[in-house]
Amino acid sequence: MDQGTVLSLIQEGLWTIILVSAPPLTLGLIAGLVMSIFQTVTSIQEPTLAFIPKILAVLLSLVAFGPFMLGQLIFFFTLIQDSFMTFVHPRI
Length: 92
Prior knowledge:
Layout: H1 3-42, H2 51-82, H3 84-88
Helix pairs in contact: 1-2
């Protein structure tokens, strides 16, 4: 296994991590921002108030984007599985 293969695999893995984690993190961030603005406008300074909307946003994003995220993970797994023999068996 050469250096280019390792770098390509690492790059594909990092890209998969970004694509899979982006929807829940983005919607959680948006929900937190909306709740923060709501707390500022209403002068309610309860730190636990923002947790429930964030949790709901993340759960809804997992339901909505679950097939896309699973597809990305399956693609990465099949990429690793298809090239597994090149990892364990060096070219002669």
